[in-house]
Amino acid sequence: MLATNSVQNLSEEGMVEITGMMKVKVLKGTNLAIRDILSSDPYVVLTPGQQKAQTTVVKSNLNPVWNEELMLSVPQNCGLIKLDTFSADDIMGEAERDIQPIITSAMAFRDAGMFGNMQIGKRLKSLDNALMEDSTVNNVDGKVKQELSLKLQNVEPEELELELEWMALDQ
User: Fold this and answer.
1) pLDDT by residue (tens digit) across 105-136?
2) Are the CB atoms for 137 and 116 separated by under 8 Å?
3) Are 19 and 169 in contact (CB under 8 A)?
4) Which end of the chain is more exposed for a tag (fewer CB within 10 A), N or C?
């Protein structure tokens, strides 16, 4: 029997229980690596679990601005979203983001519309995460959001800016 705030999707692993939706707004990249002759044609791929979502390709740009929203269903027990930045399928950088803090904050303030705009959670920058700076989870006009500035791993100092928005299935 399914809970009222979940649905199931069929994947390669069988039935998967979905706990909510995550809107990921990929804002921009900064100081991305050169992977072509003089520049790069970057795009971002998000992979939570078995899903894959991709931004458009920005031609010849090391500081691309996407401002693209990608919608992902979040399976139960999904803790990470993997982000990869590519140019012509050459990897430019990667990061993993633990999404549990935003989900936990959203569950604690289940009816976010009842509360005014306020901070409801915080993730601190540390050596074991890709955060460039501390990141807060906020209730903004009844929506649970988190802005992130991530340092891409295994490359030169590159940065990717995102905004996450959690949407429970009962909203």
Assistant:
1) 888 877 766 777 889 889 999 988 889 999 99
2) no
3) yes
4) N
